[in-house]
């Protein structure tokens, strides 16, 4: 068998994994090659009335440091403020541009303001959010792709225009 294109080689490596931690490590490695070096994946099968439900029922996969996860998820900020709110989006990939523009205009909620301040503190300047299609009303899953600190949202949007379909397909959690 000949060599596979890079993206298919990555899929082949994932299919050979035997644990979720191995899959996550490979995914984080691949996303960093695209310029997304900070990832957060949240999933639950116990959503209540369109909301996340209890934190204990949320699967959290991330390569952010523990302090960020403890604050964002542990204190429930993920339920109140997101770069792309779930109620405003359908399954798909969304640039953080709208949030950044609303933030500049001062058109964000207090919870979103807290998120913006934390993003500044944590040096998270640009990225994308993927809201995944769900098989039931009780499921919910999302991935935040934080871009390398050197990348602007303009550069991330240009990258997404070229490679977004590939990134999206590699990120689908099934």
Explain what you see.
The chain is of the alpha+beta class. It contains seven helices and five strands, in the order ααββααβααββα. The protein has helices at 6-15, 20-34, 66-74, 77-80, 97-105, 110-121, 153-171; strands at residues 36-44, 58-62, 92-95, 127-131, 140-147. Strands 2-1-5-4-3 form a five-stranded antiparallel β-sheet.
Considering the chains and any ligands shown, give keywords for the structure.
single chain; alpha+beta; five-stranded antiparallel beta sheet; 7 helices; 5 strands
List low-confidence stretches: none
Average pLDDT figure: 84
Supply the helix-strand structural class: alpha+beta
Oligomer: single chain
Rounded radius of gyration (Å): 16 Å
Helix count, DSSP H or I runs of 4 or more residues = 7
Give me the side-by-side strand order of the main sheet.
2-1-5-4-3
The percent range for strand residues is 15-25%
How many beta strands in the DSSP annotation?
5
Overall 3D form: globular
Sketch the topology as an H/E string, one letter per element: HHEEHHEHHEEH
Distance, first to last CA: 27 Å
| Helix-residue proportion | 40-55%
The major pleated sheet works out as: 5 strands, antiparallel
